Structures are given as C-alpha cells and as structure tokens.
Amino acid sequence: MAFFIFGGMETYPKNSAIKYWAEDDRPREKLLHKGRQHLSDSELIAILLGSGTRKHSALALARDLLDAYSGDMNLLARASIKELMRFPGIGSAKAVIISAAIELSARRKQLNDTGEPVRGSREIFARLHPRIGDLTHEEFWVVFLNQANRIICEKQISKGGITGTVADPRLIFKLALEEGACGLILVHNHPSNSLNPSQADLDLTRKLAEAAKNLDMRVLDHLIITQQAYVSFADEGWI
Question: N or C of the chain: less Cβ packing under 10 Å?
C-alpha cells in the first residue's frame, strides 16, 4: 500500500481504511498508548465518527470537516446537526455524536461552584461563555446570588432569534423570589459578535435595576457575551 511521509508521520491516501494503518497511526490506538492529549483535533473527531466511507477514511472525513471551518473549533461548535449532515459520510447518528461531544466540552468548561463569592465579571463570563458564546441565536440568562454574592444558580430566561430575545421582568423576579436571591447578574449573547449594547439592552437593565430595589434585591451587572469576548455594564459604569 502506498503512503507518503509528511512531518515525520505517515500520511495515508484518503480512501485507505484506518484498520490497515500502522498501529501507532490509528487514532484509537494512539489515544490508548499515548494519551488523548497527543491526538490532533482531526484525530479526536475521527474517533467520534468511528468509520469512514468507501472513498474516505474517518480521519479524512474529520480533516475535511475541520477544513470547512478553517480549522477553527469555535466555528465548528456553532454548526447545527443539519449543517453537519451536509458533509458526505456524516449522517444523523454521527452528527448527533459530534454535537453531543461539543456540548460535553462546553459543560466541562463551566466553572464548578466553589462556594466562593463572585468577585468580578470575568468569573461570570467564564461560567456562561461555554453555554452561550458559540450560539447563532440570542439567549438571555440570569445568575442568581445570595446575600454573600455566592451563586445560587443560573437559569435561561428566554431564547430568541439572531437579532434579539425578550426577557420578561415578571418571570425574572418570580424566579428570584423562588430561589431566595438577593442579587442578580443579567447575561445575554450577541451572535453578531458586537459588544455594543442596544438601546433596548440599556433600557431593560435600568428597568430591572429599578424594579429590583422595590424587592430588596440588586441587579449587580449585565454581561454581553460574544464568541471570544464580553463587556460588563458594571465595569463600564452603565449600571
């Protein structure tokens, strides 16, 4: 079987089944023998795919998939199941597996609740970014805190379209009362990657902050999260 040498590793033809490769070059065996940290993104995706097609190995499919998203895992994370299924060799089952793995990764990145008080906006960004940073639609979340600024929980309030979502103040305060919250941190994402708040964002924040005072609560911050960054209303002096 013909193969080529590239960068010190054997590179096999696209239609070469992985089972015929040298053992050290097979993604599964490489993970078992060397550890998951030694696998490339495409090798990890190939393991998720499990098998290829008659014309392409699983690794070739994985490389084609990554190439379509410029090798950017953040872009791949935003792909829907329908989008993944457009690639030859990726049916519903494989698309679901990839989507599930991406979701597990997002949940793994979320901060474990240490019971320590929240000290700044970056902690909230780190906690919510894996959940909403890669979405192609807007979602509005609220982080509920107790009197000592320790996180009680975070909950999705609404889910909208590409350009906006509606947050119902009555629902927010109903949940806050149920959780016994004293502090609220508002969070929503901008799929456009713009960090500029809209007038509606500013008006809603002021409205909620005023209403919270009547319930002996405080709106401590409002974060707008994009794919790679965030802006804090508290840090900017907008609240």
Answer: N
CA distances from 81 to 94, 151, 198 (A): 9, 33, 31
Q: Cβ-count burial of 119 within 10 angstroms (0-12 exposed, 13-18 middle, 19+ buried)?
A: exposed
Kindly report, residue by residue over 177-229, the tens digit of the pLDDT.
Answer: 999 999 999 999 999 999 999 999 999 999 999 999 999 999 999 999 999 99
Diameter of the chain measured on Cα atoms: 76
**The pLDDT value given to residue 33:** 84
Question: What is the reported pLDDT for 146?
Answer: 94
Please count the residues of the chain. 239
CA dihedral sign of residues 96, 30, 36, 226: negative
H or E, element range at 38: none
- Which structure tokens are listed for 54? 């008659």
180 lies in which domain range?
Answer: 115-236
DSSP assignment of 152-201: EEEEEEEE--SS-----HHHHHHHHHHHT-SEEEEEEE-TT---PPPHHH
Strand order in the sheet with 151-159: 151-159, 139-145, 183-189, 218-225, 230-232
Stronger pLDDT, 51 or 18, i.e. the higher one: 51
The residue to which tokens 């979602």 are assigned: 139
Partners of 5 in beta bridges: 10
Domain count within the chain: 2
Q: Which of 108, 138, 169 is the last residue of a domain?
A: 108
Residues 132 and 192 in one domain: yes
